[in-house]
Design brief:
single chain; 332 residues; binds tryptophanyl-5'AMP; 12 helices; globular; Tyrosyl-Transfer RNA Synthetase; Rossmann fold; three-stranded parallel beta sheet; 54% helix
Length: 332
């Protein structure tokens, strides 16, 4: 059976981008069709300026939202990265496989390190090595597929390179994984700045729909979305990025096609109104289930405990064999 691994970082409240680009597919498809592991990757949240109490809160909230989105612990494994030591154990071996040059080429490193420099925070060394830890997340489980949004493609490519290199040098140890992406909405853009990705770590919230936003807030944000100077509703990501983004969001909600939907609208206002209602309806059941789960943290903790146990059992033999392959002396 195909094995799938994917993760989400607790650096902010989960967004519509996270949901449409990744989480929704995990819940609607992957957990039924594959052997799937989904992870709240909390160690990754430490690569930028962070508040410990907030990371803790956001980690539990992310786990609750994954369950609220429909992940069923009877069908898939849901856990927190720092509960399974194999991720950091393997990460070091992969640091000894990756090169400085290939890590400095990562787009997210370039963007985030530039931001950190501007704000005077200093660039944490872990921001550079971050994709290596991500590779370890994936390779420790010998995952075949990694369902992610567009922005993670480059990191999965690096993971593939590291797996191939390691296997060639030290003997076949890892499965070479591939990224999979949703048919639409693989890159949901910020509603106020349709040239930038809708990202949970961004400061300004007006262009970001959070999964836990009230229905009225969602409506307001979508109705105020920046569109383009034209009038005609056309699907053109280059020249009409704002409208194209709304069409993609609507298409994702309705399992439709953005190009076809464009033909059904004569004004931006009508498109915005329908998109807002579609998103509100899409998120309604999720918000309701989340409220119930938030009231029962003991249940969520239990799911995470069992998930970590299962994950550990899968990762340990793989990481142990990587240790041996690389030349480390086994415990006598
Ligand atoms: P993160 O936490 O930024 O995002 C989680 C998932 O949501 C997708 N996503 C989006 N998709 C479409 N439009 C958007 N605007 C949007 N924003 C986010 C991301 O592509 C991702 O699939 N490095 C990863 C976390 C990670 C990981 C892993 C993922 C760590 N280890 C191993 C897969 C496998 C990240 O920062 O995702």
């Amino acid at each position: 059976m195909t094995r799938v691994f994917s993760g989400i970082k607790p650096t902010g409240h989960l967004t519509l981008g996270n949901y449409l680009g990744a989480v929704r597919r995990w819940a609607e498809v992957e957990q039924y069709e594959t052997e799937a592991l989904f992870c709240v990757v909390d160690l990754h949240a430490l690569t930028v300026e962070h508040d410990p109490a907030r990371v803790r809160r956001l980690s539990r909230q992310a786990a609750s939202l994954l369950l609220a989105a429909g992940l069923d612990p009877a069908l898939c494994t849901v856990f927190v990265q720092s509960h399974v030591d194999e991720h950091t154990r393997l990460s070091y071996l992969l640091e000894c496989t990756a090169t400085d040059g290939e890590l400095r080429r990562m787009i997210q490193y370039k963007e985030k390190s530039a931001r950190a420099r501007v704000s005077g925070d200093g660039v944490r060394f872990s921001l550079l090595s971050y994709p290596v830890l991500m590779a370890a997340d994936i390779l420790a489980y010998r995952a075949d597929e990694v369902p992610v949004g567009d922005d993670q493609t480059q990191h999965v490519e690096l993971t593939r390179d590291l797996a191939v290199r390691f296997n060639q040098r030290y003997g076949h140890t890892f499965t070479v994984p591939k990224a999979t992406r949703p048919p639409v909405a693989a890159r949901v853009m910020d509603l106020q700045d349709p040239l930038s990705k809708m990202g949970k770590s961004h400061e300004a919230g007006a262009g970001i729909v959070y999964l836990l936003d009230d229905a009225d807030v969602v409506r307001k944000k979508i109705m105020r979305a920046v569109t383009d100077s034209g009038r005609e509703v056309a699907y053109d990501r280059e020249d009409r990025p704002g409208v194209a983004n709304l069409l993609e969001i609507l298409a994702a909600c309705e399992n439709g096609d953005p190009g076809e939907l464009a033909g059904a609208y004569e004004s931006y206002g009508a498109l915005k109104k329908d998109t807002a209602e579609a998103v509100v309806e899409l998120l309604r059941p999720l918000r309701k289930r989340h409220a119930a789960l938030a009231a029962d943290p003991g249940y969520v903790d239990g799911v995470l405990r069992e998930g970590a146990e299962r994950a550990r059992g899968m990762a340990r033999p793989v990481v142990d064999s990587a240790y041996r392959a690389m030349g480390l002396l086994p415990v006598g």
